[in-house]
Amino acid sequence: MKTSTSQYSYLLMLSSASFNGILGIAFTFFPEEVLAQFGEAISPLTTLALQILGAFYVGLALMNYTGKKVVLGGIYNRPLQMGNTVYCSIAAITLLKYMAGQSFIIAPAIMVVSLTYVLLAVSFLKLLFSSPVKEANA
User: Fold this and answer.
1) pTM of the full predicted structure?
2) Backbone angles phi, psi at 76, to 5 degrees
3) Structural domain count of the chain
4) Three-state DSSP class for residue 73
């Protein structure tokens, strides 16, 4: 039987894998459309950079998807937890800083992505300081 921490980590890893997979597919296969959506100039260099970023997202999504059933929390699978925590936290802080510096209306897509990163960062931090062993023995 799964403990509440293992259910939490399963859903968190599946959510993170889905989010990163969607971004990865969009950036890899539709870089020009993504750039046009945000009003950015389409050049070979920006397209290439976005496709490489998309490859990172697909790799991260696959890593999280394959790790969705492992024991997470406390000391268990710490590298996987730390990588996700740092990545989501830095992305959330960067996006929030960007939004705070804007004097015009922010695109709804940026707000949704920012909120998703904040929720993932907080969730991974919570998982980082929880112990699945304590709950299993209780």
Assistant:
1) 0.86
2) -80, 125
3) 1
4) strand
